[in-house]
Design a protein that fits this description.
Strand content: 35-45%
Largest sheet: 8 strands, antiparallel
Number of strands: 16
Structural class: alpha+beta
Distance between the termini: 27 Å
Strand order of the largest sheet: 11-7-8-9-13-5-4-15
Radius of gyration: 18 Å
Order of helices and strands: EEHHEEEEEHEEEEEEEEE
Length: 218
Amino acid sequence: MTPRSLGAGRCKVVREGAVYCASLGILALACGLLVGTWAAAPWGLAALFCLYFFRDPDRVVPSGAACVAPADGTVVRLRPEPDGRVRVGIFLNVFDVHVNRSPVAGRVRSTRYAKGRFRLAHLDAASAENERNTLVIEDEASGAAIEVQQIAGLIARRIVCWKKEGDHVSKGERFGLIRFGSRVDLLLPGEWRVAVRQGDRVRGGASVLAERAGGGAR
């Protein structure tokens, strides 16, 4: 069990999702007792979906000078920024694991929450216009600042971040969650070599997203 999850092994569920699962399960039970199986079925299915959505699997984190994916999903954007950094955008659909993980080990320099719109998360405009939470992590190996943006989508209306300024994070450590469809962008300094292509599927904490110059994943 992790501090943010309930259950054990492959059955862990993010604690923030427990209230949804329990409420829907109780509603299904009440409908079954008071009305009938036909009335309980939709609520029971919804409870099962919530259990699936809020799952929190363990991952094997690559060692070495590798930056891992901060989320499960599809790489929808690889774009150089005017300041020389590279933006890697990962779109999460409702069937992806929505627990977010630190791409590197280091110290959280800052966290910043910004209100915004709720455009479709796979659109370019979502990075600049949607509601989002930004973590800047100082990579302990290089001292470089790596920026992770949790971006709400059309359906997602709740961004959760468990870390604050000054906290230390391990590579692949869980740091937050976005509920029901979203996007996570990573802004990498120029010395990192991106190891994925647009359209690739990645797994948070397990897939190597980039490698630092002079190093590599082992």
